[in-house]
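Researcher: Structure for this, please.
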Amino acid sequence: MELLTRPLGISGLRITQVGFGAWAIGGGGWSYGWGSQDDTDSVAAIKHAVASGINWVDTAAIYGLGHSEEVVGRALREIPAAERPYVFTKGGQIADRSRPFEEAQHNLRPESIRKEVEASLRRLGVDRIDLYQFHWPDRSNRPSR
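Model: Predicted structure, token format:
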């Protein structure tokens, strides 16, 4: 069975109507965690979703304070290159790792986003992110330039 796809804006990407959301696989130990998760099961779930036709995975740097991106990266390494899904991730929320249950700061300044993108690329083990999204608006009402 082939899943229906739709264009992603004017990007040229055609994505399945359903993707794999990786919030929960970030695990527990942070303010919005879903509790402990087994990374091997999470990798298997991503691989099963891709084998079932899903062609994109959505994660974020804040999920598990980077752990979700690491698990997604592990799954990507176990999927043949020709079958790998698009990788979508989000930034703009900066957590204090020493206080993981406190609200993350919202920061859309270019220098912060640049650092976040570089860290996400490392955790994911990819050369590019197919869609990079801002997780939440910057609440400071200052221009982001």
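Researcher: Any notable elements?
Model: The chain is about 25% helix and 15% strand. The chain has a mean pLDDT of 92.
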